[in-house]
Structure of Abi-like protein:
Amino acid sequence: MAAASPPDDVEILAILSAPRSATYVAAAGGDSLRAVELHGWNARVSAAFMLPAHFAEIATRNAAAEVLERLYGPSWPWNPTFEASLPATGRYNQRRDLVTTRLSNATTGKVIAELKFVFWQKLFTGRNDTRIWVPHIASVFPYAPTMTAASLRNRVYQDLDVLRHLRNRLAHHEPVFTRNLLDDLTRTIDLIELRSRSTANWVRAMEDVTSIVAERP
């Protein structure tokens, strides 16, 4: 569906605030009508991208949770050995995130759903290769191309890093029109496909990012 033509671009820009609109006005070469259309398009493509991002996050965190259950049992969030293995220093404190999350969530499933995106990304670091990924990563990403466990783990980490930063921009209604969104989409769905081709194809059939990108004003 094409974006509706705005009836009063000057009023819309004022309502959206000058600082927020300035990025779009500059990109539109000072054309206020085109700036509003670009802003509307940015919002539409951002909303559309949440669908593939949603399924990529779920697929990847469930893969990691499956491995953690094998290693530490179904109550792995409360396993002291696992807790002690997590870093407790740095800008993001992975151990504290786990402890805080499980305090207000009584089941493993609830903990999985409430842990921060970055918690799952940080599991895919080299420090976990020997203990977690070398023995298990191939089984939870069965459709990955042939590569070493460390290379696959690093690929997942890098893909999650791109997705996390993009998702943060989407969630905070930031401009994404300067990004190569089709490349972002390919990376996101390919991440799903490492785990399940059927799920990746299902997401491909549902996503609207491709068609909205083609409608960019």
User: Anything to note?
Assistant: Residues 46-214 form one domain. The two ends are 13 Å apart (CA to CA).
